[in-house]
Amino acid sequence: MRFLAPIFLFSVVAASAQNGKESFILARSAGKLTMLSYGLGEDRLGGAKLGYIDTSVLLKIADSTKDMYKVQLSKGHQVYINKNDVRKDTNSIQHSFYLTNSFTVKGDQSYDYVNISLDEKLPYKSWMEINPSKILLEIYGVQCNTNWITQLKSVKEIKDVYFNQVEDDVVRITIELKHKQHWGYSLNYKNNVLSLRIRRQLPSLKVGNLLVAIDAGHGGSNLGATGTTTISQEKNYTLRYANELEQYLKQKGASVIMTRTSDTNINNVDRVLLLQAAMPDLLISLHFNSSSNANVKGASTYYKHIGFRPLTTALLNRLLQLDISEFGNVGNFNFTLNAPTDFPNSLVEIAFLSNSDDEKKILDPRFQNAVAKKIYKGIKDWLKTVRE
Ligand SMILES: [Zn+2]
Fold first, then answer.
1. Could you tell me the distance, in angstroms and rounded to a whole number, from the CA of residue 223 to the centre of ligand 1?
2. Class of domain 100-199
């Protein structure tokens, strides 16, 4: 774990006192999958992430560190963004304010949509809430001028949509959902319309009707953890367990997509892009854990978004029926494949390669098969709770 002291190399803010309006260097998001970070804190998997934004979003750069820009989202909100994910925009002129315009709430064959028309592609943040299930969306640097929310009967998952101007320059939109299970949502700009696309609950909640994505962690030059008594590499075992799970789920009638099927190094951002294009009904990412303490062992499952927690607890409960100890269910986890809001997802750290008891099990093909069965049962249990 390493914490970087915030060393600001230069200040780019040129405050003009005359009109009380601060001017910033304008830029646009330009990364493949641009992530906003809360701050400069770091841990094993990078700093805490606020969420992805689409490309070409207008960003006001307030300051700079070695690798990150500080972005002023609104008067009271700042975030950090990797410099590689930003292109300076010398063509746009900073306006003193931007407005929200009309909203449209509608459905098509597959999804529900909330389309929010804006003056500019402005930065935003979203999150899930549960009991009751909602999606919250905040748009920054904007004033409300919405007097018109058209709502069409074609929606199937959206119950209600309303907004509040929660700060002078922040508008918060609440989307109440009909089902308690979150099935995911995606946010993209189409011109200056911010489109929230919401996934509907599946009509048939059976494993055999699912499209399951299985992600075998690591691969190629990315070896992952190594065994403690053998030289077993995590990348080989994630693929074996993924293949076993694929076969088992297919036997049960499910469709399966794999992020990798051979010993190749695909980075996690490319895996997310592949998955967002394929839109599985759920994602299971398989890894084996490792600790500097050889006594640490057990199974664990991980989520970032609270709406996806039920899948992760159902999987862990079934894995714990194997002769394995509980390492735990971990929330707010900072792993790239837990970051998508588009589909329910769970990271499964089956056991610890750094613990000799766990390692023995991991290497045993019978355990491999038992894990596949338990994951299948976990998915089944989860679907059962969704139906209730
Ligand atoms: Zn791993």
1. 8
2. mainly beta
Strand pairing report for 211-216 and 255-258:
parallel
Topology (CATH) of 207-387: Aminopeptidase (3.40.630)
Do the domains spanning 10-88 and 100-199 agree at the CATH topology level? Answer: no
CATH of domain 10-88: 2.30.30.40
Residue-range domain boundaries for the chain = 10-88, 100-199, 207-387
User: Contact 326/358 with Cβ under 8 angstroms?
Assistant: no
Tell how far the Cα of 307 is from the centroid of ligand 1, in angstroms: 24
Q: Look at residue 44 and tell me whether its pLDDT is greater than 90.
A: no
195-232 pLDDT, tens digit per residue, is 999 999 999 999 999 999 999 999 999 999 999 999 99
pTM above 0.85, yes or no: yes
Q: Could you tell me the distance, in angstroms and rounded to a whole number, from the CA of residue 238 to the centre of ligand 1?
A: 8
Q: What does 22-91 look like in DSSP terms, one character per residue?
A: EE-EEEEE-SSSEEEESSS---TT-SPEEEEE-TT-EEEEEEE-SSEEEEEEETTEEEEEEGGGEEE-SS
Rounded distance from Cα 228 to ligand 1 centre (Å): 15
